[in-house]
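We close this part of the discussion by returning to an individual protein. In the encoding step, the backbone of a single protein was reduced to a row of integers, each denoting a local shape. The sequence in question and its structure tokens are set out directly beneath this paragraph.
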Amino acid sequence: MKKFSNLLLCSLIAAVFLFSGIAFAKEKKLIVGGKNFTEQYLLAEMGTILLRDKGFDVTLKTGVGSVIARKSLENKQFDLYFEYTGTAYTVYYKQKDMEIMTVPDKVYNWVKKADEQKGLVWLDPIKFNNTYTLMMKKTQSDSLGIATISDLARYVDKHPNELIFALDSEFWERPDGFKKVMKVYNFTLPSQQVKKMSVGLTYQALKDGLVNSAMGFATDGRIAAFGFVNLVDDKYFFPVYNPVPVVRQVVLDEYPEIRDILKPMAGNLTTETMQQLNAAVDVEHKQVHDVAMDWLKSVKLIK
């Protein structure tokens, strides 16, 4: 009987270790990254919620600039994050073919193919276009007769010390940013007329009348809420910026289900929806997690 008890005890211990080993083997850990503005916080949060709902142990790391986010993916500090097609094309690959970067399918296919060489996979693109925009208050835009960036350029040429612009440092320097805007639209803004600040503050500065024009993002909910207008990019300067989950190939090989888990975001997020979600955070001051969760529930992606 004692020998039988010992055998039974050993069998139970072995079973515990075996079960623990199986559980450990099935543990699915991911690091989801994100940049440092509202839309990126929301996209990363949505992706994280969907992945956790399917059993992934997700660590969320957001709040970094574009270049750091990209390097973090390449250096295996992120497993995936949401990148914009236009950013990859113009900033990381330093391309400038207008016939590619202004057409959604062309720029997506270009960066997707280029990143295959780096072991990075672009999944299904989300269809809204969060391109950069230059904003003004509608009242001032109307009074000065400025509806397009060409109008703005002509006005600045005649009144170089009148308008003050709010920009963030990245937009000032990047190849698809303000320096290139001035070159393409043929105007020069004196440096003292530029106020550099974080992108989240540019909207408030314009709203409070501290500046006359500001950079922003086309899907930002504050544009309508604060009575702004986007100046028409009449020379089609700004590239297409469709957000896409980009994942390391080795991670996708291990967890191919990631593609299907995140795919519904591509089919449900429109420009109007993203504006509303961004406004819920930036204007109504709701928590990012709550806004993301409420939307996922509203479209029945989460119960």
Summary: Residues 2-26 form the longest helix (25 residues). The two ends are 52 Å apart (CA to CA).
